[in-house]
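Why run this: before we spend reagent on co-expression, it is cheaper to look at a predicted model of the complex and decide which construct boundaries make sense. The entries below are exactly what would go into the expression plan.
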Amino acid sequence: MADQAADERLRLLIERIERLEEEKKGIGDDIKDVYLEAKSAGYDPKAMRQVIRIRKMKPDDRKEMEAILDVYLTALGIA
Amino acid sequence: MADQAADERLRLLIERIERLEEEKKGIGDDIKDVYLEAKSAGYDPKAMRQVIRIRKMKPDDRKEMEAILDVYLTALGIA
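The model came back. Tokens follow.
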């Protein structure tokens, strides 16, 4: 690849990533807006995040995680 | 709000967030793909990430960051 063509290719790759990062940031902002909307409707955002984390897990993984969590909390005397 | 309507509203909010998280993840995957493409074209992804970080900064902020970095590297004897 000629130097100039390589430079141009690099520029285009960088710009593609920057555009995608912008889009990703935009969606992140949309997510924040939904949490804000939920909060002003009286829902607890922290509990909602926990719900979303749990819905992502397989039932077995969730049971395992809860069992481990229980052991740790007991170990730390906060069960 | 009746309980059922509140439950439905919560469900819709959660589902909106889940859809947006999916989209965000998809864009994250697209970004990874561009880095992979760049890598197979011979570019160094780590240096590209650094370029993108630098392009995001104002020139003054960049100078300041570099000055501080220099102080830290000297302090740790790796300058």
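The CA atoms of residues 57 and 63 of chain A lie 10 Å apart. Residues 2-75 of chain A form one domain. Bring this page to Monday's planning discussion.
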